[in-house]
Amino acid sequence: MRLNIKVSMDYAIDPGDPVLLAITAAQTHGQSVVESALEVENATLRWIEGEGKLGQRVWATTDDARLKLQYHAKVDLTRPDPLLQRLGATPMHELPGDVVTFVRPSRFCPSDLLVPFADKQFGHLDGGDKIAAILDWTAASLAYVPGSSNVTTTAIDTFLSREGVCRDYAHLVCGLARAANIPARYTTGYGADVTPPDFHAVAEVWLGGAWQLVDATGMSVAASLVVIGSGRDAGDMAFMETGKPAHLIYQSIDVSEG
Known about the structure:
Helices cover about 20% and strands about 35% of the residues.
């Protein structure tokens, strides 16, 4: 499958305030970036590695009071959807060093507070069966409500309110998986069926000795999601970071097949 991605962004910013962007498709397992181009008006760009060396980020610095950019990419996807029930969990003491981090609590995924619930609700299950149950529970328990959360909302807030957007679904899945001793990371990307079209957040869980993409919102599947990057939670993977306040003027994201 090939996905075509087009992004247009226009933000009012403080002149000279560097902007860190995480919006470009990653060259990684299961996806091949055939074409990728980022143009930022009147800006100097400095590329750096993404979190965990997955994908890239870019610092954009301009003396203008506006950050205007266009990004387009063509990405071929060969990643299959995981058959969760066939995948086993790795014992904690056998996890790779760079995976252990994703069993621990983080700023937006305080998984230690979810351990009692995870034990009671999912403790009788193992591996992929446990993750499948976590996904089913999250999908059935939460209502997708735009505007119901903000940049400070944690997985605990979402667990209590039972509503949120993709960011919140991903945080809660990560929190519940980590509470069950299954590594989970927060991953951003592009999906053709995301409604309304936007940067999308999903979870990845460590099963069968590899990262497996899962999405409790039901808006995407592993086979049709273009990954940008991954981290512990949204604090690691904001699509745009500025030192001073930035104000949205216009933003458009279009993802299509073909």
